[in-house]
Every structure is written in structure tokens, then in C-alpha cells.
Queue: 4 jobs
Job 1
Amino acid sequence: MGNFTFQDLKNIKRTELGNMVPLELFRAIRLIGMNEGLPLGGKNTTAAIGRKIGESLPAQTVEELFELFIQLKIGIPVIVQQDDHTMRIAVEDCFCEGLPVQEGKFVCDMEGAIMEGALKRIMNRNVFIKEVKCNVNGDEHCEYELRLFH
């Protein structure tokens, strides 16, 4: 069985239900199925999945990646700090917006891993990403700290 490309996934022929699923279903897959159903809250799995998705995205620049995040309704990313070795990216309107606050809980690691996989390919550098703020933790938005290595 072959691999699917991102372009393959755009071929949607659902005549009745169209190309959208409710956010509740995505949240159920992520927060109940993966976060609660897998060992260690699914962190290794979501990181691996996110990196693979990021690598497959048809973005050639950071701007194109951010535009894809918006088109795919992942969130609205904005660089809030950047230098040669680090970058901080805030994501507004993330999928977790509106969930009950659970202090100490960060649930958007897969979204960060998507960025990590894409940026590694786009920048041709090693990238390590960590979620440092999350709406679920009670923060004003989700935010990621990226470390860039040559």
C-alpha cells in the first residue's frame, strides 16, 4: 500500500456531507482518543504524527506555512520574537480555544510538531519545538518556542 500525499487528501468527493467535520470530532480524536487513550498522553505519537504532516505540507516559505495553518483552520500563527537561534510563535484561534481550563495541561503539541516538521524542511535546519503556553492551561493563546540548529 502506497503513501498518501497532501494533494491526495484534497480529492474529496462527498456529495452529501462535503469537506468539513465538526471541531468536536477532531477534539474527540485528539483529546479523548489520543491524549487519554495512549500511553504518556500520546505525546510521542502526536509528535511523530505532527512532524510527518508538517513534512508533507506544500509550503516553501514560513509565510506559506502560516497561510496553510489558516486555510486548514489549525490556527492563526504570528511570530512574536525571533533571532538567529530561536523563534516564538503565538497561535490564535487554536482548536483548544474555549475548552475548560486545566492548569498545567498543554494539549496542542501536535500543532507544534506540524510546524516543526514543516520548518525543518523549509529552513533546511534542525528545529526543536516546545509548547510553552496553551489556552487549556489558562494562557491568553497557545505559544511555541522554537530552537533552530545548523
Job 2
Amino acid sequence: MTYSIHDILRDARILLDRNAYDRPLIPTCDADSRSFNELIASKILTAARQVMEEAPPALLAPGRPVRSRLTWPEGVGRGMAILPLPDDFLRLLSVRLSDWHRPARIITDTDPDYRWQASPFAGLRGNPSRPVAVVCAQPQGHVAKLYSSAAGPDVTLTMAQYAALPQIIDGGLEIPRRLYDAFISRVGELTRLSFTY
């Protein structure tokens, strides 16, 4: 859902008990209000990213589809596949190849289980019964290494969804509705750390 920056600022000010928007009885300079709004606004993207990185994948679903083409270092449909991820990639939510029995377990290249994916023993590395997707940062961008397939040239990517980096577009921020309260709380927390009453 897309929320306007105006509404986000209002909700964050209410949370911080700094919601004085009514006209005062005695006119005063509103420089403090403007600078306070700017301080809150500077925390919006950071808060959105943190909340989306920490949220369970189910709260981010369905996500956006990954439309990249697979590459196969060992031959089409054999072994590991590499799936390039979009430039605005934040998190891989789900991925499945046509010969897998279920969606992959998603890990990163810092996970201790990553070292087992290069094992010559099929029972230790990812396979169609227990697929594994490893998200890695490479010089050309993020990729998902998909372990592994054995069905040959007929293997296709049947599903791949990701959460995109939060961006402010046309005065609005897209964030899942179920994460909005946590997001506003994080905006308030980051803002509170930046100022003293």
C-alpha cells in the first residue's frame, strides 16, 4: 500500500507527542516545526528498509516477480543455476524451479550452510527434494545461486519473488499495510535518537 509522506509525518509526530499542528493563539515562528518534519523525513527510508529486512517473508508477500533469465555454469538443467536479481532488490522472498518439490530455503553467502553447497555429495548440498537458494553480492549486482537441478533442458523458473528497496515516488512510500505500525514505530525510534527535548 502507498502512504503519503504527509500522513507518515503526521503519524510519526503523534507517536512522538509532537503533533501541534493547530494554529497557536500567539503567532510564533514555525522553524522548529519545519526542521522537526525534515528530521522525521530523513529517517523514513532507513526505517522502511530496516522493518522490511526484519519482517517475516509472509508479511512482505506477494512481492515483485523476478524476470531475469537463468544461467547454468554446468549445462542447462544440470547442477547450480544463477538467477540475476533486479537493481532494486532488497530481499528474496521465494524461488522455485520446475523440477523442485518445494520452494527453496533461502540463505546468504555468510550462512554456515553455504559451504555445503559445493559438496560433491548430493545428500549434503541442495537438491530437488531440499532446494537451497543462496543470495550473493557480486561485482555486477546481487544474484541467487540455486542448488540444484538434474532434470536437464526442460528445467524452468516457475516462481521468483522479491521485496524491493523502499523508495519515495510522487510523495508516497509503498510499504505493506501489515508493517505500517512497526514502520512508524521505527521512524519514531530513529527520530528520538537524533534529538533531545
Job 3
Amino acid sequence: MDKKTVLHILFLLGISGGLYYITQSFFMSLGILMILLLIDAFLRQYDNKRRREWEERRRQQLEEQNRNDKKQ
């Protein structure tokens, strides 16, 4: 696992521990954590989609630029 994944897991464990401390209820903490994980998954999908679109636009720009350079 890379450093980013380990930090993400530690962050989620800290959040879950804090939720349990605040609510004093395992199931309420579990429910809140599940909602947070769902939001996290949606944000990751959105970010990956935007990144792929940006990379595709950038690749097209570079190909067009290369074609223009070859013509000249």
C-alpha cells in the first residue's frame, strides 16, 4: 500500500473513534461512518471522471499541436 492509502485508512479510523466517543453508540457511529464512506466514494468517482476528461483533452491538444508542427 502506498502512503496515501495508509493515511486515508488512519484518517477514517480516527473519525470512527471520534464518532464513537461522541455518540457512545456503536450503531450510530457505524451509520454515520457508512454515510461518510458513501460520500467519499462518490467524490472519488467524480474526481477520477474529471481527471480522465482533462487528460483526454490534453492528449488531443498535444496531438493537434504535433500535427501543426509537422505541417510547418
Job 4
Amino acid sequence: MDSIGVNEQTPRQIVEELNKYIVGQDEAKRSVAIALRNRWRSRQLTGSMQDDVIPKNILMIGSTGVGKTEIARRLAKLVKAPFIKVEATKFTEVGYVGRDVESIVRDLAETAVRMVRQQRMEAVKEKARELAEERILDVFVPEPKKSQNPLGRLFGNDEEDSSEEKKEEPKYQAGREWVRKRLKNGELEKEIIEIDVEESSKPMVGMFSGSSLEGMGDNLQDMIGSLMPKRHKKRKVTVAAARKIFAQEEAAKLIDMDEVADEAVHVAERSGIVFLDEIDKVAVKGNTSGADVSREGVQRDILPIVEGSTVMTKYGPVKTDHVLFIAAGAFHTAKPSDLIPELQGRFPIRVELKSLRKEDFEKILTEPQNALLKQYKALLAVEGVEIGFDESAISRIAELACDVNEQSEDIGARRLHTLLEKLIEDVSFDAPDLADKQVHIDAAYVDEKLSDIAKNRDLSQYIL
């Protein structure tokens, strides 16, 4: 089983994987790939050198819709490490309304615990499945109740009880083995049974959020949960569903949560990745007054975490010295130099993501594994409609996306979503009733549906 936080991929392999979903932005992909590889290299070092080598944080600069967040999302799936994405705008300086910045580290610890717990549960999956089957057998063939004779017990006369038990045991075992055979053959999967399950405690959402008491609220909630007895409830489910429920419960019993917490803290400290989005929204231009004071306060609060500090979580203290931070922002109105100098210095690798051109839009429509045209084809195929786009149509859509981006706000690839939605609106609406289930879209069709929007600047501003 792969260890969590150990990414064996070479930089070239990481870039190839990102290329499946993200068009262009080679410089950003290379920087991210090198940063991940350096994490792996630092693990191979020994002694004090391993502690001295800290990750070089990355600052991505680029307008909206060019792929900053998509790189983060795909990276999260690619790396086997605790990864969280947070918006800097969620946090405000202590004393103002907003979340406490230390919740970033608490969330990272939670993610690490979830990953380690899942890995441990996978390791005991087979044993848990066996125990789950025994619990299902207990439902079908309950254990015979021992007859209790109060007078016999009082005078020590238990022979009658033991003889009855001997008579019932073979019959009970025979019935159990017969049901076990039927279970293995899959004959009982759809049978409805009544089971007794542990009721999961509902988190007190929002009770402590938005204040520095957030972490204390988590601990208080756990303490109350441990004092309260576990509540059980009856549920009627199929045997197949019961097997999943019981397997989860049994796997949870087989793992030691204290060990999980210890390992998770270590993994979060050594391999954690934090993607800090919208960092430009807390940058301050010129003199600080009013809301700008709060923005600068957010930067000052984020600084110790990025620099390296110890944050108390309910799983123990977590040091952030070796956590990799990737910050991103459009920087339309502010510049990276508007961030406080101390924070700028903590993001030594600067990557500028380029605005998308017509060729990029054409690739985005067709090449990625989740390309927009592939999505629309799959959606309409559900209704039996086969939709085709020729090259002239793809070229025209890309051209229109560029034009509208230039005329109004440049929102990158997101422009394609609304143009395509408008283009296929009629087909989507009429799909269930179409007599001809084959729809061919060419440049003339695109012009008919979208040219008014491109020509009329007032209208194009409403097409996001």
C-alpha cells in the first residue's frame, strides 16, 4: 500500500497528468511539479539537513479563468498528500467578523486524519467484511437464549440448563451454516432485515464558527460526545446495504484512532499542501484606512502560518514549517508588490499564467479528458441525441469567446461555458421531442445563434 504523502512521480509525469485536464500554462505546471519533487528529494536527506530544507512556496499570478484553481483541483487528486484549498477572503483579522486563520491548519489536520483513517480501514477491510457477515447471520439466526431458572440458580442446580443448551447448540449451528451458504451464493442480497446501528452524532454547525473559539468548540464537542453514551437506532435495510454499514462499523472498531491521529499530524506537517486562493483580495494599495486595515491584518495573521509556527489542533500540535503553500490571485487592481514585504518574501517562486488565446480555446473545447464538447455530447446522448461539431464550428466558438473577452471583462475559459449553453439551448430544450436525433453544428449554425451577442456589446456584457 502506498504511503500517504510520498509522491514518487517525476516532474515530467506530474506535468503529463496535468496536461490531460489543463491547456497551456506550462510554466505553472513545471513550477508545481518541481515543488512536489523537491518534497520527495528532501525526504531522502538525513539528519539535520532534512529539517533545514523547507519548501519554496509558489505565487500564481493570472486573470480569472486561466487555470489557477483547476491546477489546484487536479493537483489534489494527483498527490497522495493532505491538500486543502481555502480563499484568503474568508479570513479577517482577529476582532473583525470572519474565520480565524489558524483554522487552515486545523482543516489540514482533519484532511490528514481522514486520509490515514481511510488507509487503515482499507488494510482491515477483509477482516471487517468477515465480522460484518457474522453480524448479518446473527440477525437471521439469533443466538438461542439460555433458559434461566431462578430457583435452580439459587440452589446451584444448573444441570437442567446445561443439558438444554447442549440440545439447542447443534440445531442453532446447522441453521447458521445453511444461512451462511445462502449468503455466500448471493441469494439473500435483496432481503429486507432490521438492524441496530450506531447513530452518528450531528456536528454543531456554526456554533463556534467565525471566532477564535472555533478550535475550542471542536474540543468541547468531542468531549461532550465521549461523555454521552452511544445512541442506537433500528433501521430496515437490504442485506447488501447492511453489509456495507456493518463493514464500516467493524473497520472503525479495528483501528486505533490514537495511532491514526499521531500519524496524521506527522503527515500533515511533512507533506501538507495549502492552496491559498484570492490572495490579491487582501492586498492593500497605498495608504491603509477603513477596510484596508482589516485586509492588512489578514496578511499579518497569515504570515506566521506561512513562516512556520505551531498551531494547536484537537489531534495535537501541528508545525507548519514544512507545509507547502501555493497562493494564487488575479491581481487586476492590486500588484504582488502591494502585499506586505514579509509575506512577499515567503513566496519566492512567482509564476505568471498567460491569458488564453483562440488556439487555447479550441484545445479547451476538444482535448482535455473532461472537455466541454465531450460533456455536452454525453449529456444529450442520454436522450438519444447525437450531436456533432465540425472544425469550423469549434473555430468560430473560440473566436467569439476571444472577441467577447476583449470587449468586456476577460474571464478566460469560463466564457466558453455560457456561450456553449446559449448555443445548445434550443437543442437541450427540444431534445426529448426531436424527430431527427442527429444534430450537426457548423460555423453557420454558431453565427445564427451567437453572432448577435458578439456584435451587440451591450448584450455581450450580460453573457458571462
